């Protein structure tokens, strides 16, 4: 059940739940995410950052597509944060069903123009487009997904104008989240009042980036206020590789099929919690 973002999120918006977009750059991690989503009958977005795509190659995207075609659950394959038009075209040609044009740090009119250029290429081949307005913070300047030193919150009036002028399928909004894991002493605080105002002015699904390591209460409330896609990267990777470090304390281990299942299990526990929090479990029946 391979779908594009527009179609998979239309159901989420109508039924007031959110889909996790799990960032994947390893095939065992991908298999673990598919397992937990199939076990819980949950639709899912498999998200790949351009740096991850360069690492895994387009051949792995082909394998992800084949798995999605055979899966009983809806699956979308999405290119995360990308401002390079050439890489976006490569992703479309590789089989992605959704792409993100990241023009958040451009002047407003240039962000509109860049988004429209991507839409003109993507929509004719049934590929959805996500854009971003405002800036997501960062907990680490070296974080792969980037992020700004200062959060610029999304202006609700700008969101309305941006959507009207571009025809974008989904919009990532900045309401106070950061990419990465929060260090001790740094407390995230989402401005849910801004989200509520944006949701009252627009009629497309809204996206929350930097969904890892935030308080469950605020993330859960964001779903009730109009967020339909939440990006999760650091939380699942931390669970996977923390378990791997623990497993590899046994220096005799060397076979991936012995080492990785425990890592997948730890990651699946975190992923299942996200599915519960986003009210995604069982929702594959709605498609």
UniProtKB/TrEMBL annotation:
GO MF terms held by the record: aldehyde-lyase activity; zinc ion binding
Residues where Zn(2+) 1 binds: 81, 179, 209
Keywords: Metal-binding, Zinc
Pfam family, one: F_bP_aldolase
Name of the protein in its database record: Ketose-bisphosphate aldolase
GO BP field: carbohydrate metabolic process
Organism expressing this protein natively: Schaedlerella arabinosiphila
Origin organism lineage: Bacteria, Bacillati, Bacillota, Clostridia, Lachnospirales
Superkingdom: Bacteria
Record-linked NCBIfam families: cbbA, PRK08185.1
Cofactor: Zn(2+)
């Amino acid at each position: 059940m391979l779908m594009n973002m527009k179609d998979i999120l239309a159901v989420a918006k109508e039924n007031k739940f959110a889909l996790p977009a799990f960032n994947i750059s390893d095939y065992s991690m991908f298999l673990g995410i598919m397992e937990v989503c199939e076990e819980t009958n949950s639709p899912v977005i498999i998200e790949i950052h351009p740096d991850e795509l360069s690492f895994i190659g387009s051949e792995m995207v082909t394998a992800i597509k084949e798995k999605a075609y055979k899966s009983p659950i809806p699956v979308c394959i999405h290119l995360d944060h990308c401002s390079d038009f050439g890489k976006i075209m490569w992703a479309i040609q590789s089989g992605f069903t959704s792409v993100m044009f990241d023009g958040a740090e451009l002047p407003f009119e240039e962000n509109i123009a860049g988004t429209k250029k991507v839409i003109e290429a993507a929509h004719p081949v049934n590929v959805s487009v996500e854009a971003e307005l405002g800036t997501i913070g960062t907990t680490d300047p070296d974080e792969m997904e980037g992020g700004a030193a200062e959060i610029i919150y999304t202006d609700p009036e700008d969101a309305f104008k941006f959507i009207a002028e571009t025809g974008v399928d989904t919009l990532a909004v900045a309401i106070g989240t950061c990419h990465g894991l929060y260090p001790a002493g740094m407390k995230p605080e989402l401005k849910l009042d801004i989200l509520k105002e944006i949701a009252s002015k627009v009629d497309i699904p809204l996206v929350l980036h930097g969904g890892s390591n935030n308080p469950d209460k605020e993330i859960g409330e964001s779903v009730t206020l109009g967020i339909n896609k939440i990006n999760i990267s650091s939380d699942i990777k931390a669970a996977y590789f923390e378990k791997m470090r623990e497993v590899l304390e046994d220096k005799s281990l060397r076979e991936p099929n012995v080492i990785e299942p425990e890592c997948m299990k730890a990651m699946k526990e975190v992923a299942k919690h996200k599915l519960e929090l986003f009210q995604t479990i069982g929702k594959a029946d709605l498609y």
